[in-house]
Amino acid sequence: MNTPFFGFLHDLTWGDLPLEVQDHARRWLLDLVGVAAGGSTTRLASIVRNHAARQFGAGAQGARMLMGGRRVSPAGAALAGGMTIDALDAHDGHKLTKGHVGCGVLPALLALTEAEAQDDDRDFLTALVIGYELGTRAGIALHRTAPDYHTSGAWVAVACAALGARVLGLDGANTREAIGIAEYHGPRSQMMRCIDHPTMLKDGSGWGAMTGVSAAYLAADGFTGAPAISVEGEDVADLWADLGQTWRILEQYWKPFPVCRWAQPPVQAVLDLRRAHGLSAGDVDRIEVTTFHQSLRLATRTPATTEEAQYSTAYPTAVAMVRGGIGPQDVAEAAFGDPDIRRLAEGMVVTESDDYNAAFPARRIADVTLVLTDGTRLSSGPTEAKGDPEAPASMADVRAKFHAYADPVLGAGPAGALERGIDALGSGESLKPVLDLILAPAQATQPEGIPA
Fold this sequence. Notes:
CATH architecture of the largest domain: Orthogonal Bundle
Largest sheet: 4 strands, mixed
Number of strands: 6
Shape: globular
CATH superfamily of the largest domain: 2-methylcitrate dehydratase PrpD
Structural class: mainly alpha
Number of domains: 2
Strand content: 5-15%
Helix content: 40-55%
Order of helices and strands: HHHEEHHHHHHHHHHEHHHHEHEEHHH
């Protein structure tokens, strides 16, 4: 049994957290909720919310779906919430996990909190921090010990089961069974398959959240599944020994754009060149990108779906050159017809660098050369995306992104109330007003043909 794991999970309190960690809990909550609002308008989110409503009945202990309002089972709410956030690839992540913790942990925690009638805002934020700490370590551990490159859902499941054990008050023995069940049932899905063939499967976060919540309830009923090798293995013991000393929540990166992180360095490089030289799309004959192998694999140039647009290097880089930025509206299917974007994306030259490959995943680097219509070549030099923990985004940037994603969906008034509510969490007040805002149905029009 991993003693540091179980003590940290069940005994940590809000007062144990450094102020910087408390601030980051609110920071990532605000960002995730904004992304969820934007994601709620997608066809993916509508399909999965309807699926949860039809296939995951609420039973005796229901929970409302994130940005959906309808009551389903806790496992169904975790599934729908995780996939709603994941529908818009703009949520936080961690370099060494090559994936995302909050996307699965938050909807699982929301579902468990409501189903079990929890109302302590400090305990909620403490649990969110615990989810980041356990999930990040589980992700690093699984990547260290498994040969395949799996989606985030594979290891997020472990963190979600642990949070379920905390909320349900499971003892050490049943907690051990819960995380073992979750590790075994977690979706060990093929990440590069979804890179090469982008679909609504995305990063498996919703399925991992569902698996973790289900595992906790199974363990509470006596179902067995221990041990979780990624927690108890001797070859990963070092990752768990510093719980409560090294805070992995501080290591997450923030995404300025709603596309795969691997595509964001060339997007940033183009924006830097565009601003520095006062360029427009008409000035550019072609774009040349040198990047790392995984970014090269984001090979879609003319997307037909929002998923293809998000898992592309050429398309968002071309959007950045044409529009001077990229937001949720730019990865919606209505945005795909721009002839300048198509011209630059289809003509883009993308190659990989051995040096940039060697730097991955700790660093994600690209450089861009703009070849202008007069033959001039403008080069960015090695560029990394903004928002890495070494150079974190300002809170003003985080708030601006939240409103850019949330205001068009929730309305400026409710979005502002949600922001203020999240800012106030940790004061010992009731969690219910914030939960009601997060779990209320989004007001945006549903995609055509997909009923609410």
